[in-house]
Amino acid sequence: MSYDPPRPVGRLLLTPEDKDAPARVRRLRRLGLGEHAEPAFDAFADRLADVAAVPYSMVNFIDENRQFFAGLHTPDGNVSTTRPVPVPADGTHHGVGRYMTRDYGFCPHVVVRRRALVLEDVCDYPRFAGNPVVDEIGVRSYLGAPLIDRTGIALGTVCVVDLEPRPWGRAGLETIKTMAAELVEQLGQREGGVGGVGGVGGVGGVGF
Fold it and tell me: Which of 36, 104, 107, 188 is most buried, taking the most CB atoms under 10 A from its CB?
């Protein structure tokens, strides 16, 4: 995949149609994903946030109705298991939750298009600038890649978010894709009974 510079496109303001959602839900349930947080996923999100130097990062599994952050890094580390995103518009981050509806954010687009998405400044893209997370949370930049398992199903995403524009560039694109591939490999071990998500150390020194 090549890195595409900002290209304003005036369509797809709405949540994309997700025809693969039923098959994804079956696959997630088979793997035991998308309903419960796990410390290993939070650790993965913490490391991803450290690599990208961002306030928010997620391991996100998406079903027919909602997004579930099985792994979530927030600025203060305070995560609620019950409260949904978004956080209050006054900038407080206490109790940021693990659930988000499918019309919030950009991960549903990544899952449907099955390709990484690089938004250095969300406001440069009319099709994304109207998303509720821009005004309600203050999201200005996004970098995400799909988690496509061995069956060809996009289970969800790994992503990072900043409240300021970020020049992710090609290095950022390659890093998020690499981390997605490593997490997919770890997820594959669950089905084979090898174990859960382990430590992934191959990209710790990559900078943006």
Answer: 107
Q: What are phi and psi of 133, to 5 degrees?
A: -65, -20
**Residue 69 three-state SS:** strand
CA nearest to 143, candidates 165, 116, 180: 116
- Number of H-type helices and E-type strands within the chain: 6, 7
Contact 198, 186 (CB under 8 A): yes
Give first-to-last CA distance, the chain, whole Å.
18
Instruction: Flag whether pLDDT at 201 surpasses 50.
Output: no
- Under 8 Å CB-to-CB from 76, ≥6 apart: which residues? 93, 94
Cβ-based neighbour number of residue 46 at 10 Å:
16
pLDDT tens-digit readout, 119-162: 999 999 988 998 989 988 899 999 999 999 999 999 999 999 99
